[in-house]
Design brief:
With about 450 residues, the chain is mostly helical. The protein has one domain: Hydantoin permease (Orthogonal Bundle), CATH 1.10.4160.10. About 80% of the residues lie in helices and about 0% in strands. The longest helix is centred in the first third of the chain and has 47 residues. The radius of gyration is 22 Å and the shape is globular. The two termini are about 45 Å apart. The protein binds tryptophan (TRP).
Length: about 450
């Protein structure tokens, strides 16, 4: 094992769980999951998602954690050093570098979206203040112009708020693994869950919410035969568990040596799933409560409004009908999304940062500066050419690259890594059954299943 004596570690198993679930729980859970559920007909998608998360994403997560813990290094060094064979080293390094690039690209679009969340947190807050204090007509016109600017998508607004979001991310990552990532994940995650539960209880008390619950809980089984549904569910599971790009691998490398990985990984998967379901239970009923109040929830084609329309139109329209309290709720809701995005974005930035630190011998501050400025410049390009680039970057990174890299990681854990190293890295005595099944599973079943769904995706 190549253990550098100065390498940081999470202080405890709980610290790791907080950081890893912080990474996993993000916009993918609170926005992506309910949106995909609404788009794919409700409960059938939820069912497919839960099955695939445990059948595919969890074993793939274990592959990353095991490689990270065994090699105690970033994805490039880790994959490049699993086997002394020169060709395998080369392939490993190349795949690792590809992972670093994809993590950076994901952060480039993710921080734009994170910026939108900050803007939407500020807007209701400013409106609320303006409506409670007595201001002149002139000032009130400018406040209105300001709040409209905040919620209208323009390159300038996007660039400013994306930079702000990136600054917050940088602040946390620069403070290091323990004092930055672990500490802030531990603070922000409970805040997030509390906010969600409060909002959910509120939404459930509204009329119409019950219809949303039905959509979420009663599956239309015929939909399960649709391959597009499986492709979306797998993509969602991979994105939600932050797989493929070395995020979980680097967090695995900071894990305390005596924690058992199978149970720890299962907990991360379960918490991630629970929070996605919680978000579904909050947002889908909210859509129907909005309909009850006369808000249009279907688009011209008769399809449930999802994606940006759902988050930035349907829900704010619902909040508006609640008067003053609605503005507090709106601000709280977007603050929640900002927090969730932040504990995820720090884990993405850690991928290129750890690589620059370890392989190019840069100080942490310098590594953070170089990585974040490069990524931010890419976000600026996306913001300027938004219509051409945004969807293309999202699809390229999440639909194509993440599953491909997922296959590579499973193959490296299953075929390239020595079996005794694999078992050693799993650790713990509670994992005997797991140790029998999983090494075999990650060799054959995982890569083949991911490949099958991936090829299905290419054909549709
Ligand atoms: N999982 C996070 C979410 O659900 C996003 C995320 C963090 C991510 N790190 C990642 C996605 C690495 C892909 C790869 O929002």
């Amino acid at each position: 094992m190549t253990t550098a004596p100065t390498r940081p570690l999470f202080s405890s198993r709980l610290g790791f769980i907080m950081a890893a679930t912080g990474s996993a729980v993000g916009l993918g859970n609170i926005w992506g999951f309910p949106t995909q559920t609404a788009e794919n007909g409700g409960a059938a998608f939820v069912l497919a998602y839960c099955v695939l998360a445990f059948l595919l994403a969890y074993p793939a997560l274990m592959a990353e954690l095991v490689i990270g813990r065994h090699r105690r290094a970033n994805i490039v060094t880790a994959l490049g050093g699993l086997n002394p064979n020169a060709t395998l080293r080369l392939i490993g390094c190349a795949a690792g570098l590809y992972g670093v690039a994809i993590a950076s690209l994901i952060l480039a679009f993710y921080s734009l979206v994170g910026g939108w969340m900050i803007a939407h947190t500020l807007q209701p807050g400013i409106e609320l203040i303006a409506s409670t204090v007595n201001i002149s007509a002139d000032l009130s016109t400018s406040v209105e112009a300001g709040t409209t600017w905040l919620t209208t998508q323009t390159p300038w607004r996007d660039i400013i708020f994306c930079s702000l979001f990136m600054t917050l991310t940088v602040g946390i990552v620069a403070a290091g693994v323990g004092r930055g990532i672990e500490r802030w994940s531990t603070r922000l995650m409970p805040t997030l869950i509390t906010l969600m539960i409060v909002l959910m209880i509120y939404v459930w008390s509204l009329e119409g919410a019950g219809e949303g619950l039905r959509l979420l809980l009663v599956p239309d089984v015929s939909r399960l035969a649709n391959p597009a549904l499986l492709v979306s569910a797998m993509g969602q599971a991979f994105f939600s568990l932050s797989l493929g790009v070395g995020t979980m691998l680097i967090y695995g490398s900071y894990i305390n040596p005596d924690a058992s990985l199978p149970t720890t990984g299962a907990m991360v998967t379960a918490i991630d799933m629970a929070i996605a379901l919680l978000a579904g239970l909050l947002i889908i009923p909210a859509i129907f409560a909005a309909q009850h109040l006369g808000i249009v929830i279907y688009d011209e084609a008769g399809v449930l409004r999802s994606g940006p329309g759902l988050i930035f139109q349907t829900l704010p329209a619902l909040f508006k009908t609640m008067g003053t309290i609605g503005q507090v709720v709106a601000s709280g809701f977007f603050a929640l999304l900002t927090i969730a995005a932040l504990t995820s974005s720090i884990s993405m930035l850690e991928v290129p940062v750890a690589y620059l630190e370890e392989n190019h011998h840069l100080s942490r501050h310098r590594a953070v500066a170089i990585a974040s400025l490069s990524i931010l410049s890419f976000s600026v390009v996306i913001a300027i050419y938004f219509n051409v680039l945004f969807d293309a970057v999202v699809n390229f990174t999440t639909e194509y690259s993440q599953p491909l890299l997922g296959i590579v990681l499973c193959v490296f854990a299953g075929w390239v890594m020595r079996r005794d190293h694999l078992l050693d890295a799993l650790g713990g005595s509670d994992s005997r059954l797991f140790n029998k099944i999983w090494p075999w599973y990650v060799r054959f079943i995982c890569p083949l299943l991911i490949a099958a769904i991936f090829i299905q995706n290419l054909r549709t």
